[in-house]
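Worked example
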Amino acid sequence: MAAVSDSGAERAALVARIFARQVCELFERNSLRILTGTAEIDAAAAAVSLAEIRFGEFAGSCRNHIKDMDRLADIVFGR
């Protein structure tokens, strides 16, 4: 029975990480679209805004994303 709960805990952690990364990707894409899409904010102001929201941390948040998706598929499909 412990193996089943361990698998469930691992699955929940994988799903949470995958979802969080997808949210980060949306935030990353939309923040760039908003800052540059209006053409009313110059490059320097956009750079300051990106630094204030710690954009670089969001951009680097996708490490192991494919590995996590593969592991989740292994659990879900019994591979």
Observations:
- The helical segments are 2-37, 43-52, 55-59, 65-77.
- The chain has a mean pLDDT of 84.
